[in-house]
Amino acid sequence: MIRLVDVTHAYGERVVVDHVSLELEEHRIGLIGANGSGKSTLARMLNGLVVPDAGRVLVDGLDTRGHAREIRRRVGFVFSDADTQIIMPTVAEDVRIGLRGSGLSRAETDARVDAILDRHGLADHRDHPAHLLSGGQKQMLALASVMVTEPRVLVCDEPTTLLDLRNVRVITETLRGLEQQVILLTHHLDTLVGFDRVLVMDEGRIVFDGEPDAAVKYYVESMERRP
Ligand SMILES: Nc1ncnc2c1ncn2[C@@H]1O[C@H](COP(=O)(O)OP(=O)(O)OP(=O)(O)O)[C@@H](O)[C@H]1O
């Protein structure tokens, strides 16, 4: 379970996460809010990519301040722009790199890579240059490269923002099918149908926390009220 205890973070003078306390234990959690409301900064705190100025982020009781490696093994992170996440020349190499230092034998590594490529519809692209994949396939590769490490939690920061409608559906359905806990940041509000809990963020604070329908309604109405 991930717990935030009175977490605050600023960039220079600008406070972007403002005294947030949360317990994140539901299987499917959405995080929505206007551009610049602090969602990405909050999300990056969940696996220690950002360490808060004040307060604590605890993953299964481990503080992100000081347990970065263990925490990144437990909490995977998918970015919106897959190009920033894909680091190896070919599809299989990119997935394989996540298992470096895992202690698995070569045969075990091969089996794990093949299984994950198969599961994410990339088996036929195994030895293809990763940069030649379509946008949807690249996002699937970025997801596969995180999933191969078998994290317990997956934080996805707008994974569908750069995709066409069909690929939005493909990625959304893939995320829905995962056993892992998923924490999804998105501006595609219809992808939150069936989620257990949706948080709305505004100016660094959680201003709504509840069912998806009510959260989306709250968010849409608050945006309509904006000058
Ligand atoms: N590394 C950084 N250095 C300085 N300012 C930053 C940094 N990262 C984010 N910010 C600023 O912090 C504020 C919150 O950004 P953040 O990315 O957390 O918001 P967001 O809700 O995810 O926005 P979006 O929906 O546009 O992705 C923004 O004003 C942003 O410009």
From TrEMBL:
Keywords: ATP-binding, Nucleotide-binding, Transport. It comes from the Bacteria. It holds the Pfam family ABC_tran. GO terms for cellular component: ATP-binding cassette (ABC) transporter complex. InterPro entries: AAA+_ATPase (IPR003593), ABC_transporter-like_ATP-bd (IPR003439), ABC_transporter-like_CS (IPR017871), ABC_transpr_CbiO/EcfA_su (IPR015856), ECF_ABC_transporter_ATP-bd (IPR050095), P-loop_NTPase (IPR027417). SUPFAM superfamilies: P-loop containing nucleoside triphosphate hydrolases. One of its GO terms (molecular function) is ATPase-coupled transmembrane transporter activity. CDD domains: ABC_cobalt_CbiO_domain1. Belongs to the ABC transporter superfamily. This is ABC transporter ATP-binding protein. It comes from Thermobifida halotolerans.
